[in-house]
């Protein structure tokens, strides 16, 4: 996943030869199918757990008869596929169920926590996207010491995000005492009003992401600067900033958008790690705590929502990339 | 120089991780002094919340994590190689089906797969499932492309004309030719497996306390980061250095494979199609 020289060919959704509209329909169908598969996988995983919602919800002294009654009431005595369809159709109509732990509607909890996670992801992307382009530019255009720059990108992308987070916490709040080590956001408060709480989580997410994005992009940069028209412009004596701006950057736009989409999908999942580590109340920490407490409706809704956001991001990336791709076939 | 250094440091890391527990000056799971001591002569890296020796826990904390990651990476790599050999060798609808399945799985982040798997499965299995789903498709594509190139090379055609069976050609001619590529790929799968392992550990879905485990230590010691930063920094450095070392070893192995490839200049990179 991190080999810069193999990565562009392997890890990225590749440009399709067909018209942009066709490829978008294809990508849309793929995303919908994947989402259906994810929902089935999540449902199966929760089905595999020993004990069901009735066992979990029954009061301590309930006997067999009461549990059987509760199971009937909750509709748990029907076949799994029927329950799956019921659950999916409820999801589609916006009914996400209620938490087994606190009895609150899952939709409310999600709506309350989503902005916090989006703030994290947006902040991390705002830093990581330009940084990855700059790093990729450096790695893709160095002539000498190419392997060293590749090694820096590979090594940087390999560091687990938990390690970055812990190291930054040890440095900034342990050794330097600049920011609080935990990011406990008061409930209902906007994350944007507490930049000191956002600092550690955003930086921990952005750093490894920048290296990972750069390792995906470096190949595209190296390919682009080797294109004939770039060499030609150089021979004509065009200033290098103009070559970068006019001859190289437009060709990088499509891969850049795709890489940003892939990286943003990773960030949604990675938010779970960073939020849990810093005690930041977002969707990721919600998913993790729901998994630990076996709060199945919350797990199901959150996991499917996370997958939907990831797939929507990839789809958007595909669409924008298809629209911005310079048509090499047309001009050549 | 580097070619000697990387295998040596890999061996050192493996020895330290597997045998570190015996070197530990204190029992990694029992109290050895007052909690949250900063580094001092008795405790090189200080103590944690329960007064356990951080240095001892760091020494003992990599074994399980690395064992699970290696197992997961081997599974992902083996499945991917098998799929890639079949897809690259046979071509046709089977290859297209395998590639489509692989493409399909790639869209989801490994960590999300691991979290879904961790709902019902033990964490070790969840790591294997996530690494296989997220990694095997990449291996498949790399191996498939390599097999396609090798398949049309002279020595493979010669072996086929000699009347050797497909299995023996694959085993004796094709596989040795992509040894470097496969080991590089295995290294990258291992890196992702360690990342997933670390994530699950930090999330509290991995190793259970009081086991010494680098990822679990990060989680446990975050509360005391202001009093003893080394309780967090030391496992972070151990985990980070191990992962980076594996990634660099994979990179080196890939470069060696590239260097050995015949008429490299003549083979332009294929368009990403």
From TrEMBL, chain A:
Main location, first listed in the record: membrane
Membrane-spanning parts: 24-45, 118-139, 151-178, 198-222, 243-261, 267-291, 303-323
Keyword Transcription carried by entry: no
Highest rank taxon of the organism: Bacteria
Topology in membrane: Multi-pass membrane protein
InterPro entries per record: BPD_transp_1_N, MetI-like, MetI-like_sf
Gene3D superfamilies per record: MetI-like (1.10.3720.10)
Subcellular location field: Cell membrane
Coiled-coil region list: none
Family, similarity comment: Belongs to the binding-protein-dependent transport system permease family.
Annotated protein name in UniProt: ABC transporter permease
From TrEMBL, chain B:
Stated family: Belongs to the binding-protein-dependent transport system permease family.
Keyword tRNA processing attributed: no
The ABC transmembrane type-1 domain, residue ranges: 66-250
Membrane topology category: Multi-pass membrane protein
Protein name: ABC transporter permease
Pfam families found in the cross-reference section: BPD_transp_1 (PF00528)
InterPro entries: BP-dependent_transpt_permease, MetI-like, MetI-like_sf
Coiled coil: none
Signal peptide interval: none
Source organism (scientific name): Nocardiopsis exhalans
Location in the cell: Cell membrane
Primary localization class, coarse: membrane
TM regions (residue ranges): 65-90, 97-120, 126-143, 186-210, 230-254
Record keywords, A-Z: Cell membrane, Membrane, Transmembrane, Transmembrane helix, Transport
Record keyword Membrane present: yes
């Amino acid at each position: 996943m991190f080999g810069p020289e193999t990565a562009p060919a392997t890890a990225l959704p590749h440009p399709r030869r067909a018209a942009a509209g066709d490829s978008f329909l294809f990508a849309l169908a793929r995303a919908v199918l994947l989402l259906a598969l994810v929902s089935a996988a999540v449902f199966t995983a929760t089905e595999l757990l020993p004990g069901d919602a009735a066992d979990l919800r029954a009061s301590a002294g309930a006997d067999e008869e009461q549990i059987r009654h509760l199971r009937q009431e909750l509709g748990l005595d029907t076949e799994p596929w029927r329950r799956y369809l019921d659950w999916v159709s409820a999801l589609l109509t916006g009914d996400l169920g209620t938490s087994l732990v606190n009895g609150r509607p899952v939709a409310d909890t999600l709506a309350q926590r989503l902005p916090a996670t989006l703030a994290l992801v947006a902040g991390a992307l705002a830093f990581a996207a330009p940084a990855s382009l700059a790093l990729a530019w450096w790695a893709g255009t160095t002539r000498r010491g190419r392997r060293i720059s590749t090694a820096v990108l590979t090594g940087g992308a390999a560091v687990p995000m938990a390690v970055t987070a812990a190291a930054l916490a040890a440095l900034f709040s342990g050794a330097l005492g600049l920011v609080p080590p935990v990011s406990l956001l008061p409930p209902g408060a906007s994350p944007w009003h507490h930049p000191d709480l956002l600092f550690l989580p955003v930086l921990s997410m952005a750093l490894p992401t920048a290296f990972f994005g750069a390792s995906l992009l470096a190949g595209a940069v190296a390919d682009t600067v080797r294109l004939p028209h770039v060499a030609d412009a150089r021979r004509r004596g065009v200033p290098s900033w103009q070559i970068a701006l006019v001859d190289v950057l437009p060709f990088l736009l499509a891969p850049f958008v795709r890489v940003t989409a892939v990286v943003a999908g990773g960030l949604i999942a990675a938010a779970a790690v960073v939020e849990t580590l810093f005690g930041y109340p977002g969707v990721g920490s919600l998913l993790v705590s729901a998994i630990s407490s076996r709060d199945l409706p919350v797990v199901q809704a959150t996991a499917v929502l996370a997958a939907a956001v990831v797939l929507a991001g990839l789809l958007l990336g595909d669409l924008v990339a298809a629209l911005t791709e310079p048509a090499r076939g047309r001009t050549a | 120089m580097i070619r000697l250094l990387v295998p040596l440091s890999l061996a050192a890391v493996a020895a330290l991780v597997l045998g570190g527990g015996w070197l530990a000056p204190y029992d990694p799971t029992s109290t050895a002094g007052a909690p949250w001591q900063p580094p001092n002569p008795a405790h090189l890296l200080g103590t944690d919340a329960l007064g356990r020796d951080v240095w001892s826990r760091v020494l003992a904390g990599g074994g399980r994590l690395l064992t699970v990651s290696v197992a997961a990476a081997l599974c992902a790599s083996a499945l991917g190689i098998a799929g890639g050999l079949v897809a690259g060798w046979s071509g046709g609808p089977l290859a297209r089906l395998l590639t489509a399945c692989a493409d399909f799985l790639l869209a989801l982040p490994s960590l999300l797969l691991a979290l879904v798997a961790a709902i019902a499965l033990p964490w070790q299995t969840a790591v294997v499932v996530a690494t296989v789903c997220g990694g095997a498709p990449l291996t498949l594509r790399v191996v498939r492309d390599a097999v396609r190139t090798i398949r049309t090379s002279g020595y493979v055609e010669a072996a086929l004309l000699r009347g050797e069976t497909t299995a023996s050609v694959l085993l004796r001619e094709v596989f040795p030719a992509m040894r470097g590529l496969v080991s590089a790929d295995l290294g990258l799968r291992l890196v992702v497996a360690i990342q997933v392992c670390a994530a699950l550990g930090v999330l509290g879905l991995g190793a259970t306390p009081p086991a010494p485990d680098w990822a679990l230590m990060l989680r446990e010691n975050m509360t005391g980061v202001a009093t003893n930063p080394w309780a967090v920094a030391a496992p972070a450095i151990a985990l980070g250095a191990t992962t980076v070392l594996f990634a660099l070893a994979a990179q080196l192995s890939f470069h060696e494979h590239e260097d050995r490839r015949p008429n490299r200049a003549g083979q332009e990179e294929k368009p990403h199609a």
